[in-house]
Amino acid sequence: MTSVLPKVLAIGIPCSGINLLSQIVVGNPLLTEGLWVNQWYEDSEDMYKDLKETKPGEVRFGHLYYTSQLKIYLNENDFRRFFIYRDPRDSIVSYLFHVTALEKTHAHHKYFVNALKDDEDRLMKLITGFAESKDIAAQYGLEELGYGNVTHHFLPYLRWLEDPGTCAVRYEDLVNGGETRRKQIIRMIDYLWDRIGGAGLDKEILASAMEKNLYPGMSGQWKQYFNEEHKYVFKELAGDLLIYLGYEDDTDW
Questions:
Q1: Predicted confidence band at 197 (pLDDT cuts at 50, 70, 90)?
Q2: How many Cα atoms sit within 13 Å of 203 on the Cβ side?
Q3: What three-state secondary structure class fits 130?
Q4: In the 8-state DSSP scheme, what is residue 87?
Q5: Of 75, 71, 83, 115, nearest to 10 (Cα)?
Q6: What pLDDT, on the 0 to 100 scale, is given for residue 39?
Q7: Angle made by CA atoms 162, 165, 171, in degrees to the nearest 5
Q8: Whole-angstrom Cα distance, residue 91 to residue 170?
Q9: To which H or E segment does residue 122 belong?
């Protein structure tokens, strides 16, 4: 039976729920957890090497930009893929605390903690992006020190949403629980069903196993951290992004 199982790739924007996605997908007892893809973001020889080593029934994870070359490779090599996305406002708040408190070896940690005066300033930097001089970068042991604005950060991933071969899932639909979460998990099972249905397991049993493996996060945290200036700048730079993703109907928020 294992020979007909699909290879699975879980894709997510950083701090947008890929760990949550991994919990659900590997909660499926027919699938096993594999390694992270070695090269994040753009196509590379290392990335394709890791993908080539993926076994049927194995799930790999990565922050992988959409490219037509990658999509063709995944189609030709029997990869099913899930893509998780999240409200960009919550995503950058999560990134802020990931860099400052959770991942002290992150390349931006010392800069965020030592050069920026407070979380309001740090959050604004993540909205607008930043590019420091080589002299400042050198103070933190880096050759370059920069980060794109919030739209620039999200854009390379968004075509996964338009790819008919990818099952896209909203982070909020998984963390908010209830019937919405259950429906999304069933939809994820249906996406794989032509390859896993032959195992004889009931969809509801699979859904229960996947849901049981989930440790939910939180949504809407951005409301606690955005001040009026943050909101204004975010609307200018990424108001259309929120509308495209379905988080707002307009910029009146």
A1: confident
A2: 15
A3: strand
A4: -
A5: 83
A6: 55
A7: 65
A8: 12
A9: helix 119-128
Q: Which residues pair with 82 in a beta bridge?
A: 10, 167
Domain ranges of the chain: 2-87+157-212, 88-153+219-245
- DSSP assignment string, 160-218: GGG-TTEEEEEHHHHHS-HHHHHHHHHHHHHHHHHHHGGG---HHHHHHHHHHT-----
Q: Tell which CATH architecture fits domain 2-87+157-212.
A: 3-Layer(aba) Sandwich (3.40)
Distance CA 2, CA 5 (A): 5
Tell which residue, 91, 87, 92, has the closest CA to residue 127.
92
Split at pLDDT 50, 70, 90, the class of 40 is: low
Contact (Cβ atoms closer than 8 angstroms) between residue 27 and residue 210:
yes
Task: Quote the CA–CA distance of 163 and 166 in Å, as a whole number.
Answer: 6
Give which of 169, 198, 19 is closest to 94, Cα–Cα: 19
The structure's pTM equals 0.92
**Residue 161 identity (one-letter amino acid):** L
Which residue in this structure is represented by tokens 């009931």?
202
Whether 197 contacts 3, CB under 8 Å: no
Q: Map tokens 């309001």 to a residue.
A: 120
How far apart, in Å, are the Cα atoms of 124 and each of 214, 222, 227, 237?
32, 12, 10, 12
In Å, what is the CA distance from 207 to each residue of 61, 105, 175? Answer: 20, 37, 15
Query: Six-digit token pair at 103?
Result: 């991942």
How would you label 189-223 residue by residue, b for 16+ Cβ within 10 Å and e otherwise? bebbeebbeeeeeeeeebbebbbeebeebebeebe
Q: Are 65 and 90 in contact (CB under 8 A)?
A: no
φ, ψ of residue 56 to 5 degrees: the values are -55, 135
